[in-house]
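// run 5 | inverse folding | seed 20
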């Protein structure tokens, strides 16, 4: 196939000879692959009188080919197809179900190949008078779609320009004024399992000149015997409401889950509603349920995208097993649309361990309700910025990068051993801030992705404390012993762990719950170390017995895409006064 242009700019010019009534009505110039054997030109006699095409020529700007050396009558109101290869024309139309009922001939003088990037089609009489000519540029139509003259149009201009909405066009017919077309049938979820209810969303477009409505017959056929035959298992008729010209209407049909297997799903517009492209179908396979989600991705890390360690080496993809059975990821793949990698275990013998404790290595089995992180192989050699909780399965790929290096616009997919996509993160047209991940707001298949509310995302968890996360209290010693030679036992040292300038309160209670002393108020300047000398708020020595230290700090809780404030974290520690304090 000849080179196609990415930018579609076209000019169509028709020279009209009022003394003639034979017109170029439809053209298939963009055949299959590089052979182009599907090319054809349709002529139409727009008069009541017959015309003899003997000796007429089909020309371009460089040469002419005789259409027929013998008598060839084109009756008034009739069509004729000039085909590059008549056998291929018939075979192709039959294979896609296009009906045609006009003569199809192969030119006596051979064929002038039609250029994809532009060409001229000139029809001349036996005396070399130009009857009709068409010029097109820059490949206006997709492969196997035709260039069509709208009905009754003498001069093709951009505002009246038509590419056939269907493959194969509309041979042996004028283009209808009122015309509905099935442009697409959506399936949700895109890769259903036998547990998923499905939704079909056919899109109907009015490609004609006037408002039109009609009906659509939807069907689902099970593929049997390795594709040899099919069995109709579901069908219904949907009403197509009145659609204005050029507009698209989306219909919706919801149904219960399908059994595991492959299906042909399609729709047919009633014959009165559509003269061409009245049917569209596609193959969909329903897989065994695998309860796995892409739950978070980091595509825009802190630091330079080219820096590694750091930067690009800190990209990750988080997986979540929402099922009740473990998932073995052996042989599974990950792709960003540019490159596909095999998911492999993080082998500590090759890559070492991360600095955080309790992570799971050297296996591809993801436990029920567990999280896994697919990390760059060089993550361990960098600054390891993520606070990954214990119990997270650490994975990587067989390549240095994840895919071809992740970007916001990448559609990221996880594929199982049969190369069936199990979960995906659609590409985004907006960009996340540096250091913020995309997180699935609800841990289910239809959960939408948004930017994480916190820096560095939430790798390895869905809901967790953020501010206040590191609030901790340690006491030394845990008991007063004034007679001990160790001077440290004459008071209690309280070490407080809390990031930044976060506030907290610290109080001492007796075992009956009565306040003994408020060591730190939440309004006070926070300290990392405080002491208690065993006296109450009035300076009185407290008797031998058990006491309770209670620390409280406000925290923020991240849950999916939300950051919730107002929660508090409370820590309690027991303190004993073993001997009387003098």
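// decoded
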């Amino acid at each position: 196939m000849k080179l196609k242009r990415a930018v579609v700019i076209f000019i169509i010019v028709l020279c009209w000879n009022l003394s003639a009534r034979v017109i170029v009505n439809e053209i298939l110039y963009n055949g299959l692959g590089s052979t182009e054997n599907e090319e054809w030109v349709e002529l139409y006699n727009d008069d009541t009188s017959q015309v003899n095409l003997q000796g007429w020529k089909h020309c371009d700007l460089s040469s002419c080919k005789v259409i027929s050396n013998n008598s060839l009558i084109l009756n008034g109101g009739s069509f004729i197809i000039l085909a590059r290869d008549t056998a291929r024309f018939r075979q192709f139309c039959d294979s896609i179900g296009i009906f045609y009922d006009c003569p199809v001939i192969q030119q006596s003088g051979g064929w002038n190949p039609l250029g994809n990037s532009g060409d001229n089609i000139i029809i001349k009489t036996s005396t070399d008078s130009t009857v009709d000519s068409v010029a097109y540029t820059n490949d206006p139509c997709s492969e196997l779609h035709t260039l069509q003259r709208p009905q009754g149009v003498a001069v093709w201009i951009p505002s009246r320009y038509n590419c056939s909405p269907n493959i194969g066009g509309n041979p042996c017919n004028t283009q209808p004024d009122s015309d509905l077309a099935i442009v697409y049938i959506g399936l949700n979820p895109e890769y259903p399992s036998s547990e998923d209810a499905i939704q079909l969303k056919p899109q109907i477009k009015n490609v004609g000149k006037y408002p039109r409505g009609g009906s659509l017959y939807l069907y689902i056929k099970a593929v049997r015997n390795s594709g040899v035959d099919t069995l109709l298992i579901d069908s219904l008729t949907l009403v197509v409401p009145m659609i204005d010209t050029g507009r698209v209407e989306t219909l919706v049909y919801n149904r219960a889950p399908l059994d595991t297997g492959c299906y042909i799903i399609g729709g047919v517009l009633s014959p009165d509603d559509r003269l061409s492209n009245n049917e569209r179908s596609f193959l969909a396979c329903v897989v065994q349920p695998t309860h796995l989600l892409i739950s978070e991705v980091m595509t825009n890390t802190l630091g330079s995208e080219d820096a590694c360690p750091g930067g690009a080496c800190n990209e990750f993809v988080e997986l979540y097993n929402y099922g009740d059975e473990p998932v073995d990821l052996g042989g599974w793949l990950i792709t960003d649309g540019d490159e596909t990698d095999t998911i492999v275990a993080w082998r500590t013998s090759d890559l070492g361990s991360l600095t955080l404790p309790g992570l799971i290595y050297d296996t591809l089995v993801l436990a029920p309700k567990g999280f896994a992180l697919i990390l760059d192989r060089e993550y361990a050699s960098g600054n390891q910025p993520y606070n990954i909780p214990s119990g997270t399965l650490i994975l990587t790929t067989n390549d240095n990068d994840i895919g071809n290096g992740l970007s916001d616009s990448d559609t990221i997919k996880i594929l199982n051993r049969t190369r069936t996509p199990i979960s995906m993160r659609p590409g985004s047209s907006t960009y996340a801030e540096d250091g913020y991940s995309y997180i699935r707001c609800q841990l289910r298949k239809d959960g939408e992705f948004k930017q994480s509310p916190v820096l560095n995302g939430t790798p390895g968890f869905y809901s967790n404390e953020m501010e206040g996360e590191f609030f901790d209290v340690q006491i030394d010693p845990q008991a007063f012993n004034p007679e001990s030679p160790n001077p440290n036992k004459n008071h209690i040292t309280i070490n407080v762990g809390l990031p930044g300038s976060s506030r907290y309160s610290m109080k001492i209670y007796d075992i009956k719950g009565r306040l003994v002393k408020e060591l730190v108020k939440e309004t006070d300047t926070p300290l990392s170390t405080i002491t208690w000398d065993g006296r109450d708020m009035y300076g009185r020595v407290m008797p031998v017995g058990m006491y309770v230290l209670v620390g409280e700090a406000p925290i923020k809780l991240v849950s999916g895409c939300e950051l919730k404030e107002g929660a508090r974290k409370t820590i309690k520690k027991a303190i004993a006064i073993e001997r009387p304090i003098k």
